[in-house]
Amino acid sequence: MDRVLLVDPIDPSAVSLLRERVEVIVCSEASFDGIRRDGRDADAVITRSRLPDDFFEHARKVRAAMIHGTGMDLVPIEAATAHGVAVSRLPGGNAQSVAEYCVMAMLMLGRNALEITTKIKTLPWDETRLLGARAHEISAMTVGIVGVGEIGRRVARICRHGFGMRVLGQQRRMDQLGPDAEPAALDRILDASDFIVLACPLTPETQHLFNRDRLSRMKSSAWLINVGRGAVIDEAALVEALRDGRIAGAMLDVYEHYRLAPGHPLFSLPNAVLTPHLAGMTQESRKRMGAAAAEETLRMLSGEPPKNFVNPEVWEKFHERRPENH
Fold it and tell me: Which domain, by its residues, includes 186?
């Protein structure tokens, strides 16, 4: 019986689906050493966390790797291909959850909800009510979306049709922008947007896309919302911009390094709103993505090509590694 390593917990219904056909191994330790150790006996791996670059040198039986999400930086793709490992992912599986997080962020920030919630616990009632005078209706505001993929298109649709906002979009392929965002160059988005949503992947072109220069181009009243990849923002430059009040603030769900270290400067900034990479985590998305990840993994283990094949060039070598061929 094949064995599947779960690096991270997945929905219980998906675990049950897997156990009908394979043995499930739960990672014993959330560290690179633990992942390497538990991977030695696995035939497939399902992960939401980054695998160590040398994972496939230790997990030599693994022939299928399933990304429980969209981020192709979680699995060393070149190493997987070199070892004959098929890789799949789940584009759009949590897109609705992430899009709703972005809209929640705009509503909270536009209405100054976090400051008001904090102050009402320590200030007189009437003094707290005065903070409401700084609130905005987001329908009067402009949102710029950098990376109008599945998540970005959903954000654009909700903002345009739900609130009547002006929506600007920037996408590598503008023909895939969708009907709800107005095409715009990045410079225009920086100049015109009250909210900028980053939903783009991390590539050599997007690494530190929001550097000191681009952050300084934003409106001083604008908020930056990042649900894409942390390294799209130069974090040191962002801390500087927030500390100096060059932008209104930032709401971040992703960071240059996966876990913010204790004492990180972002923790001390009142205009930095932080969440621990949970924008896509809802009960609905976990169930939907868990089932899809389990089905894709079983599909690969049975010798069928996955629906969302990341490295199709590995197919011949993948088949050579199937147990019945040895």
Answer: 95-274
- pLDDT for the residue 72: 84
Number of domains composing the chain: 2
Q: How far apart are CA 155 and CA 127, in angstroms?
A: 34
Q: Which residues of the chain have pLDDT under 70?
A: 324-326
33 plus 149 within the same structural domain? no
Query: What value does the CA radius of gyration of the chain take, rounded to a whole number of Å?
Result: 22
The pLDDT assigned to 104 comes to 98
174 and 195 together in one domain = yes
Q: How far apart are the first and last CA of the chain?
A: 16
Q: Are 266 and 274 in contact (CB under 8 A)?
A: yes
Q: 111-121 b/e with 16+ CB inside 10 Å = b? A: bbeebbeebee
- CATH code for the domain of 11: 3.40.50.720
Compute CA distances 22 → 16, 188, 294, 302, 316, whole Å.
Answer: 10, 52, 10, 11, 24
pLDDT tens track for 152-163: 999 999 999 999
Please report the pLDDT score of residue 187 as a whole number: 97
In one-letter notation, the amino acid at residue 241 is A
Predicted local confidence at residue 175, as pLDDT? 80
* Phi/psi at 142 (5° precision): -115, 130
Instruction: Output the CA torsion sign for 254, 256, 259, 261.
Output: negative
How long a stretch of residues is the chain? 326
Is residue 126 domain-shared with residue 85, that is, in the same domain? no
Residue 220 structure tokens = 């001083």
